Fold each of these.
Amino acid sequence: MIEIKNLSKTFPSKSGGVEALKNVSLTIPDGEIYGIIGMSGAGKSTLVRCINMLERPTEGSVVIDGRDIGVLSESELRKERQSITMIFQGFNLLMQRNCLKNVCFPLELAGVKKAEAEKRAAELLEIVGLKDKMKSYPAQLSGGQQQRVAIARALATNPKILLCDEATSALDPQTTHSILSLIRDLHDKLGLTVVIITHQMSVIEEICTRVAILDGGTVAEEGAVGEVFSAPKSDAAKRLVYPEGYEETLNSFDGGMVRIVFGGAAATKTPLIAQMAIDKNIAASILYASTRSICGRVYGNMLLGIPGGRQQLDSALTYLKGIPDIFAEEVKRNA
Amino acid sequence: MLSSFFESESVTKALEILKTEIPLAVWETFYVTVLSTLFAIILGLPLGVLLVAGENGKILKIPKSLLHILNVIINLLRSVPFLILMIMVFPLTRLIMGTVVGTAASIVPLVIAAFPFVARLVEGSLREINPNIIETAQSMGANPFQIIVKVMLPESVPSLISNATIAITTILGYSAMSGIIGGGGLGKIAINYGYYRYQYLVMAFAVIFLVLLVQLFQSIGTFLAAKADKRLKANK
Ligand SMILES: Nc1ncnc2c1ncn2[C@@H]1O[C@H](COP(=O)(O)OP(=O)(O)OP(=O)(O)O)[C@@H](O)[C@H]1O
Ligand SMILES: [Mg+2]
């Protein structure tokens, strides 16, 4: 378990310092695929780099399996880092070593004998599907292949935690998907705890079970992915979940508005707008709608405009709340 | 006209000098250059590593003041013109070699002049490395020594070879210059015959051989650097 407690990080600068993280507290349970999402500059990289102390927090602590890793000596920390490994957006392979030797690298650092290291490296390359590229150099591989080598390298020392800082941000959607599947497979097989840093909703939706939304160096919202993305509460979460222009739609319609969120098949099969028109004689217009699939479950999100005043709105709300698997709330204008 | 030129007395004399003295001079210049470069690298490489690894305490924790002193020494040595430096280190040369004249003696001032230059070249090579790669090594638990030996140096080998080529050709130039005050080799021949005895043909030949040596070093260096670089190789 990773416990991040009241973590703050201020980078010194001429104008008094940049507060990259402000009092962040998170708990990442064992075996979770935990997502951390936020806009550029939100402090995601800083946070993940504090987990293995590549960045020393200004305040607060990181406790891994009950051990405060901020107080470890340099050599203890180096040992600990063999079990908390990391992959990066830029892959960061050694360009003058072939793939096999790249995967051997962390084993060399740990003092494993050459023959043994090469055997393990070959096994790992096979697991990530690059058995035939052992003697190739990174420059001869595609981005996706390089990230696979980096993953094999990160697994060489049998880590318990894998940190991924924008690991798929440099890859196309197809390759992103294949890398995420690989990470999930390895997670299932090896029981890894995975922390995924990203600015892409789609990555979180595809692979994560829990998510924390980071905004301006603080945690804006945290919870199960389905909950956070279907009913975002914080502004930061709403900005991520709703597309651009959502706010304008909200403000341009003058009538009552209801937001409904539905999850699961029961809800998607009900023709609820038509049903509402027939049963309650309410002619709702759809202002915004989206469905997304999160961990294999379909979530829908719809903004309905209800013309005809307060009474209509109330009866629509009562009607919608009565349908199982549907969450409905009145949307109040910002003004 | 041409035939009379080749039959003239000065030409025969020049050819005679070439035959008897040039082979030895080429050899002297060659070994002085190679040995000086070797010693300059032995001193300059660790110094360059220290300058980069010690910066900001990121890899090695070296006191800032020590780095500052090293930088000042390098800059001072680099700013003294070679011939003056050669005279300035005469006492040291005498201490080490027992004499200040001769081919072997010129190795001392050459090394003193070249090692700060080599340190700067090494510094430049090591700075080219993507800092993320070093950080990745740190994230995998590499200690400072492992970062230097397993990451920084191997990753910059092609650049180090290119810079070694620059160093050896520069040192070759210095070694020729050392012929003015006591050094041996092609420089001495060019000065002695060309400058003091107006044997321009001899001087021209000495210069041609210097050019050929530069070409030789440069070609070998370029070849080795390209061969060492695994970033450029196309799929086999
Ligand atoms: N070494 C540093 N020195 C000074 N400021 C820094 C440093 N590293 C990060 N920062 C600042 O801290 C803030 C958070 O940076 P961070 O890299 O954690 O953001 P991020 O969420 O990872 O962004 P991105 O999605 O662009 O990678 C930024 O304002 C950044 O300028
Ligand atoms: Mg980042």
Amino acid sequence: MDADDRTREAEDRAAREAAMAELRSLLLGPEQQTLDDLRRRLDDPALRAEDVGAVLAEAFAIAQRDVHLAEALAPTVEQALHRSVQRDPEPVADALFPVMGPAIRRAITHALKGVMQSFNQALEHSLSWRSLRWRLEAWRTGRPFAEVVLQHTLAYRVEQVFLIHRETGLPLQHVVAAEVPTQDADLVSGMLSAIQRFLQDSFRMEEDDRLESLEMGDLTVWIEPGPQAVLACVIRGLPPSELRETMQEIVEAVHRQYGRVLAGFDGDEETMAGSRPLLERALLVQYTEAPRSGRWAWGVLLLLLLAGAVWITQAVRQHQRWDAFRAAVAAEPGLVLLRAEPSGRPPHVEGLRDPLARDPAQLLQAAGVSPDGVVMRWVPFQSADSALVLRRAVQVLQPPPDVTLRLRGTTLYAEGEAPPGWMASARMLARVLPGVSTLDTTGLTTPAERRLRELQARIEAVQVRFSGRTTRLAPGQDAVLRDLAEALTALDATAREAGRGVVVTVTGHTDATASAEVNRQVSRQRAERVVAALRRAGLRVSNTTPGLRIEVQGVGADHPARPERTPDDQAANRRVSFDVRFSDTSIPH
Amino acid sequence: MIKKKICMLGTSAVGKTSLVRRYVQGFFSEQYLTTIGVKIDKKTVDLDGQALTLVLWDLNGEDPFQRVAASYLRGAAGFLLVADGTRRLTLEGALRLHERLHDALEGVPGVLVLNKADLTASWAIEPARIEALQREGWTVRRTSAKTGMGVEEAFEHLARRLLAP
Ligand SMILES: Nc1nc2c(ncn2[C@@H]2O[C@H](COP(=O)(O)OP(=O)(O)OP(=O)(O)O)[C@@H](O)[C@H]2O)c(=O)[nH]1
Ligand SMILES: [Mg+2]
């Protein structure tokens, strides 16, 4: 073929193409335009997405009638959910929250109810008279106690629920009530369906005539057939007709939810695992005596709570008592607490105790804890605590009742009246007292010294009066002088007895009317007059040391009893006064 | 766990019950065999890490009315067709039985078991007959329920066929 031929051929083809195009446009006319549009749309992904988007919702709605869409979508949705949770669990958690809360609450309520019910039963069975009777019955008949109880109290109980694949007789799912011995689901399912078939064969029943119930002793098997699965409940006791309805509902639900799984069941029980909760709905139980909504149990629970509260209060109070005891011991001189174990068995206390300290058992009792049963071990020691030092001093020195001892620093002060002999021995003993460096006895007097002081006061209180400006004693002074003479005589005797020297100064006074010279003479004469009168009244003075010595002086108007404004004042200043001085200064003034 | 229903088939006294007894731990009393014509046992086998439970339906041999309940076979995933190797008639009976149950057993894998292999002196099945059966497509196993010979293998062979696609 030469070049011309080829050119001609190409021309021919072009012409044919043009003719075809024209033919198409003649035949299809405006549709051609539409076709071109469509092709463009199909080629353009953006436009295609737009088109699909517009019908997606409707497409889903249609496809939903078939389960295939759900199946096809499931992996994608699962994956999307998984990713979402991985990225941020919060949105999913938020979405689930309203569902989870009630579900968890319901589960807890359910569990609690179960617990209360069995608690209640346990109580009734262990506490009541009736239970004793049943125990006796169990013992007599040789049956287990649980069985006797069940026989008396159980109306019925669904013990096992089998969901059996009708075709193969294999168990699809099997649930068992708590505390019921399980049977082999494979074998029971097989036997049940074998029995079913045996009956059908033997009595030439129709396929739809099904065995509905089997009875053996107090066990009943109720069978509820479905197109692909059979539900069988093993029941102890007499089941109510409502159970049948529940069973029908379960069978229906199983077929609704697992229809496809059942149709293609290949013996893999995993595929039916989700049906357990459905079956569990048939695990019903009813007692002849309803568990009284746990009134018993609540009562006992309340009691237990109360007992608990009491116990806690007791424990707290006991704790407080022991704290009080610890504080008391800490505050008590001469006690040192080393260990206190209130919760020990037996409770015990250890510490140091000065023999002079208070009895710790008393403190324990005072704190409200009975010392009985508390083991106490106190190691003796000598406390340097001032209270104890003082107590020890009292114990060692044994002061007479009128003496009080005080401790300041390490100096022990003795105050009051004590016989001289005691004082002497106290001074010696004090030197060996732990915690005492010196004994201060300046606050001590002897009985004799007290007497001396009394006499001193009595004597110094006396004023002797005179008639006018004379040196004659005023009338009616005899009694005063007799009394004075007696006091002075006693003073002399007591001073000698106590080994003390006493000087009584008899001082004469005048008013200020005369001259000082006259006054001095008159005052001196007045004093001498009084001494002479005293001697007449019976005064005898030893004039020795120890003993009483009398000195006489006249001071004129130098020491008036009171300022002179009236004649009365002057009269009061015309007098003789007495002054008692002990020569030993150890007697405080 | 995968579970499969297996049926024991064969004429009377060929050793079906004995084979099952040898293979499994019994559960139900054999009383059931006479009352309802079937006894259920089970055995879980481990096939290369895959657990499979065989639920064995031991059917009574042909009853006097020559009526094996086809309904018992429904849902069976496999069967053991048992014959007594010392009695040739039982093999023919087993095959006739299989033929009769054709509708129920269509497409269901099975193993032909020639039992009582311990009784070698009275063995009645010639090797040629066995070869012929194998050519027909039968898997043939010789067993002895008495000694245990070949029993596990026969069941296990069937089990493997059940799991194979
Ligand atoms: N020697 C020997 N005897 C066997 C063997 N298997 C079964 N038998 C005996 O054969 C007899 C029948 O055995 P079964 O197992 O009851 O036979 P079956 O097939 O179950 O019989 P049916 O239930 O009546 O159909 C019994 O006496 C068994 O002891 C075997 O392998 N060797
Ligand atoms: Mg038998």
